[in-house]
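ok so I'm stuck.
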Amino acid sequence: MWSASYASPPPYQAHTSSPRLTMLSIDGGGTRPICVLHILCEIMYRLSWDLGNITSRRCTTTPHIYPADYFDYIGGGGTGALVSFLLACGATAEEARDTFLRLAPQIKRVRSITDLQLLLQSTTSGCHTMRYRNECIIDIPSRTNIWIPSDTRQDAGFKGILIKKGKPVITCLLPLVATEIYKELTRQTKSSHYTLPFLQDVCPNTQNCSLLLSLGSISSPSRYPPTVSSSMQTGSMLSQWLSPYFPSSCSPVSWMAAPAVAQHQIPESNALERYIPPSAWGRTVIRLEPNLAIWNALGERRWPDEWEDKHFGEHKMLTKNYCSKADNEGRIDVVINILRACLLPGYSMA
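replied:
not stuck anymore, here's the structure
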């Protein structure tokens, strides 16, 4: 649980008046957003370092970096909507990650949308009196614009509902988030990828977007276990990291079906690639999607959509490994350079 960073509506305007938008898209899929939050923490940490807020891993100074202050729009579906909710309430990336980790085992056991709403409301604090529809309510103003997928607006040509910055989070956003999570828990969702509908609703013309950061986790693992080398057979039963997109990773386990998995593309990814101009990829559109599967010597797979917390630490380590790869570091540097150009009042370029 965290405390809101302001007891009244934000006293400053972020970079939302900039002519081009910055957007953050978060995919769902069980506990896969944990990997997304690890990536977001890494991005916010590096941004804090560049802004001079951090001098070492052991020394962090205020002010904190809030993702909601750097993205004009944040969209998430499924359990990714929970991340959007936490960021809208004024959580840092680390606070959102810790809260998600704490809620994950409890979310799995809920039986109704009402239970989910009560669980989510227990994470909020720092509520204060605000006016909404000519009434005084106790709530928290949304720190940024939040997009949530919805089937009710498809007739009007929209694929989701937009909660604008400053709207009450508990009153307007929390019921939508609880419904979206419950739909995923009951397998009523057809996909866990929401970047394309989010982009089509918020910024159909990608030229008006200075940054679209799409964070997700591959949801099509191989059906075949890896082959185990002789050195692995004689070693201890330690989990190993495998990724069909990075077959050259330092692992004693070889991926049998790497070519087949690498060629396989889910329909949502194909549609997104067709919608966004090729020249935008790697410049204004950044997609980070670690494909993390943990295997042991018995061929048992642990995928990051399981709700138990005994493997969360391993996925954190593997996500850091993913972020440290040269091509992914380059993508993260592009994100940081764009966000640095959207500085908040009080910051100075180092």
